[in-house]
Amino acid sequence: MPLFYRKIGQGKPFIILHGLFGNSDHWVSIGKKIADLGYEVFILDQRNHGQSPKNALLNYLVLTDDLFEFIQEHKLDKPIIMGHSMGGKVAMRFALENPSYISRLIVIDISLRAYKIPSQLTYILRAMEAVDFEIISSRQQVDLVLKKHISDPKIRMLIMKNLQRIDKNRYEWRIYLDAISNNKNLLFESIEIDQSNYCATLFIRGGISDYILDSDIQDIEKAFPNAQIQTIEGADHWVHVEAPEVFITLVSEFVNH
After folding, report:
1. Does the annotation mark 181 as catalytic?
2. Which SS3 state, helix, strand or coil, does residue 144 take?
3. What is the pTM of this model?
4. CATH 3.40.50.2000 fits 5-116+192-255, yes or no
5. The one catalytic residue among 52, 85, 111, 209
6. How many CA atoms are closer than 13 Å to the CA of 106, on its beta-carbon side?
7. Most CB atoms within 10 A, among 9, 54, 105, 167?
8. Of 221, 123, 162, which is closest to residue 19 (Cα–Cα)?
9. Is 85 one of the annotated active-site residues of the chain?
10. pLDDT in tens, 165-208
11. Contact, 48 vs 180, CB < 8 A?
């Protein structure tokens, strides 16, 4: 699948993969800072997100295949791959399946294990489906509908990034909600591949997030024996948003070491 992407900077290739409900827009400021370190940064919209094509299939097999095709199409030589949440699972699966295609790996606040589908996902889907674009004519009206289901302004801001204008007073979601709703169980499955990748690997977790627990470390080190795990204290799942300066410092120290 031909994925939409944004390219920033020049140098060695560096790929960024967003999480569920994310898109490349969310990562532009981080991408610019990484480009300043001397990298050609490719920020992808994964399938059914952002400006990439929509498809009924949505699982880690097809997401990983999309990434492989992107690297082949753009002739990227051993890129650094960084993924957050769902994007982190795609990055891990790709690294384990294709160890010779990657130079370094950065995984943001996700482990290899299966996760229980969070209740928050149900609220988000319900909120987005409740927006009636036949009667909605402004971003403010969309936010008011979302607010009935989602109290956290950070989450609403994330969701609003998926809103696009189609003419003066009409909007639509550019994310493919049906594919996410129909395949949500698959997006919380574990990554189970019976081999290891010995490339330098950095896991960054939020100190108040429960996505990477101490109990996950054994499996992480089995799959990625050269992994280091850094914790950003006080940060939740969106560590790169809540502590961007600390996040960039960790990434910079890792890639330039």
Report:
1. no
2. helix
3. 0.95
4. no
5. 85
6. 24
7. 105
8. 162
9. yes
10. 988 889 999 999 999 999 999 999 999 998 999 999 999 999 99
11. yes
